[in-house]
Hints:
The structure is a single chain. This protein is α+β, with helices and mostly antiparallel strands. The chain has two domains: about 10-200, no CATH class; about 210-280, 2-Layer Sandwich (Alpha-Beta Plaits). Helix content is about 60%, strand content about 10%. The chain is elongated, with a radius of gyration of 21 Å. This is YitT family protein.
Amino acid sequence: MKIKIEKPNFKKLGVDMLFILIGCSISAISTIGILIPNGLTSGGVTGMVRIVQGFLPVNFSVLYYCFSITILIICSILLGMKEARKILLLTITFPTILFIFEHFQFSILEEKDLFLAAIYCGVLGGICSGLVFSRGYSFGGTDTIAKIIQKKFMPHVGLSQILLVIDACVIVGSGYLFGRNIALYALVTQVIFSKTVDFVMYGFETKAVQVEIITSKRDEVANYIMTDISRGVTNVMVTGEYTKTSRQKIVTICSPRESILIKKYVAKHDKNAFVTVIHVDTVWGRGEGFTDIQKD
């Protein structure tokens, strides 16, 4: 019996790297050329690094790299190597690009303008994350920290709620260190950032989508969604009107980024699969990232 060894898709890998390099460069320009020269901060790891910079005179890129490596190590220990592999590439690539851009010490805006800088940082940062997420990759940021906290300490609390609290704490901490106005500008940046990410990935759609899949690899795809994506799966029997052939359709509700991961997995294992992504306005339930059905 011959074992079929799947050849690496160098074309796809090349496109992924192109998106990652473009996205990371955009974010580095935003951080080094706008955020830092204007004395601003934001949520996430960027905000954490800015807070530490208030006490330690160390380059932003060096501190960011230290934070990223620390998160990667903790992630590999507490969440496993499967989760760590998702953030490994960006953990190395983004701080490296930051380090390169940091040596040019440039400013995009002609003069200091905090409000304009906050807007640009949110838009450019959102474009970066949207491009990276659309290729199925992830930064090892506060989303990974939230996963660790949820798994080890708060399994019954939604991931989005934990992430919101972490970012809020970072912004509040920035307020104590840099002043209330800077914290408010950071909040503006964070809101614009999240909206831009959603727009880049799915236009003006919301954060929840319904994915429907018809594939000959039903068991493999369903297992991937349940184990790797950690989402529930429903099977629905459907019949093609032309062929009169009945098949089972996989249905799941997930985030836009997770739908990209599912699509990539299905495309890799079944080139004849049929995948539909449907915009969902609101989801009430007990699942991660959904609105609690018991709330008023």
